[in-house]
Design goal:
Blueprint lengths: L1 E2 L2 H21 L4 E5 L6 H14 L6 E5 L1 E4 L9 H8 L11 E2 L7 H17 L5 E4 L21 E4 L2 H7 L12 E4 L2 H5 L4 E5 L5 H9 L17 E6 L7
Helix pairs in contact: 1-2
The protein binds 2-amino-2-deoxy-6-O-phosphono-alpha-D-glucopyranose.
2-amino-2-deoxy-6-O-phosphono-alpha-D-glucopyranose (GLP) binds next to loops.
Length: 244
Amino acid sequence: VIFESSNAGSIAVANEIATLIKEKQKNNKTFVLGLATGSSPIKVYDELIRLHEEESLSFKNVVTFNLDEYYQMDPDNYQSYYYFMHEYLFNHIDILPENVNIPKGNLTIEESAVFCNEYEEKIKNLGGIDFQLLGIGRTGHIGFNEPGSHFNSSTRMVTLDYITRADAASSFLGIDNVPKKAITMGISTIFDAKRIVLLAWGQNKSEIVKETIEGEITSKKPATYLQQHNATTIILDTEASSQL
Ligand code: GLP
């Protein structure tokens, strides 16, 4: 779906999330929301905060699972996705802290493997993700599922692509400071979501957007797997759609 602006697209997405949360509230049920970081979802988060503040949207029945986190990364480091999520969303809404799940980037390798399995289990025990928000990296990654990620992959530790690290360099004061690894939900974790919405804004994303939508399905561009998901919408602004 192509919107005139990222603002208009973000408001539409926030409204869909709000409607789904309220439907679950009516039935006293938990809404399981998968969240993304990066610049793309920021306006969706702004709108969700506005709906909370001005239209009393409550997040008390919402359990969130974030897609990914850098490794090694302390949660209190301002470059962490933990910090990002609190800054841009969680500190401004009434979500219960125990309902927030973000991969931990500060465990040992052994602890991390256990953590990844528990993350998967926790999602499954809640009946799976109801709505998963995604951005897209220029490598075609979703979460941090870089080229080569298997369709059956689950939450795990991965090595970041050079392009991904180069794109993150400015927030880390140089590529040498960008972590080389990350923890990410897998393709199968994402694919199990009942509804998926991928956001892409701006000219910079137009090439990978074209490949994602029109290209062959390949592990070389993991976002192309989404072509096979039965409830995925890709939300674009005019610039991001310019090569379609
Ligand atoms: C990072 C995140 C992805 C995100 C991507 C795009 O690599 N791990 O989940 O989709 O950045 O970021 P942006 O939205 O800033 O373009």
